[in-house]
Hints:
This protein is mainly α. The chain has a domain of 33 residues. 47% of the residues lie in helices and 0% in strands. The protein is flat. The chain starts with a helix and ends in a 13-residue tail after the last helix.
Amino acid sequence: KKLVNEGVISEDEMHSFIEQVQKELRQAHDKINKADKMDNPDMEKPADLALPLQADEQSFTFDHLKEINDALLTYPDGFNILKKL
């Protein structure tokens, strides 16, 4: 839309580009064999993750959780966080 507003391309060209990309994405998606199973042993779930999670008896105070949260939201000087985050 921005390119149309700046006069770089016409609205028809924009729609043509969008349709072409969607067509290519549909074709790529249609090529995927939905019956394929992942058979790469390197990609199997680690054995430790197969075990059920164990309850942790450790408790945290609100102040401790707030301290952790504040530390996560503190950035070094000169570090610019992406606005969308």
